[in-house]
Amino acid sequence: MLEIIFAAAAFVGSLIYFNKKTLKSKSIWKAIGLSILIILAAIALFVLTGSRFMSIIIVSTTICSVYISTLYREMLTRIHKRQQQLLKQREG
Predict the structure, then answer these.
(1) Which residues of the chain are under the pLDDT cut of 70?
(2) CA atoms of 23 and 70, how far apart (whole Å)
(3) Which of 4, 15, 35, 43 has minimal Cβ neighbours within 10 Å of its Cβ?
(4) pLDDT value for 20
(5) Model pLDDT for residues 15-38, shown as the tens digit of each residue
(6) What is the pLDDT of residue 23?
(7) How far apart are CA 22 and CA 44, in angstroms?
(8) Distance between CA atoms of 19 and 75, rounded to whole angstroms?
(9) Among 25, 59, 24, which residue's Cα sits nearest to residue 39?
(10) Euclidean distance between CA atoms 37 and 91, whole angstroms
(11) Torsion sign (Cα): 67, 72, 20, 22
(12) Which residues of 23-45 are buried (b: 16+ CB within 10 A; e: fewer)?
C-alpha cells in the first residue's frame, strides 16, 4: 500500500515539475539512455539493500517515464508547429 502512495506522489510531482520546465536541451535518445541508467542504478540499489524497499524501483521508473513522455510530447509539439508554419508559407 505504501508503494502505491509513493508511486502516485512521484507521478503527480514529476508531472508538475516537468510540465513547468522546458526540456529542449536533450535529445530523446540521450534521455532514454539516461533513464535506463537510472533504472538500472535503482535496481542495483534495491538488490544491495536486501530487496526490502520496492519503492526505490517504482518511484525511479515512474519519474523516468514521465520525463520521457514529457520530452516526447514537447518534441511532437515542436514538429507540429514547424509543419503548420511551412504550410502557411506554402499557401501565402
Answers:
(1) 22-25, 92
(2) 8
(3) 4
(4) 84
(5) 999 888 766 667 888 989 999 999
(6) 65
(7) 30
(8) 13
(9) 59
(10) 46
(11) positive
(12) beeeeeeebbeebeeebeebeee
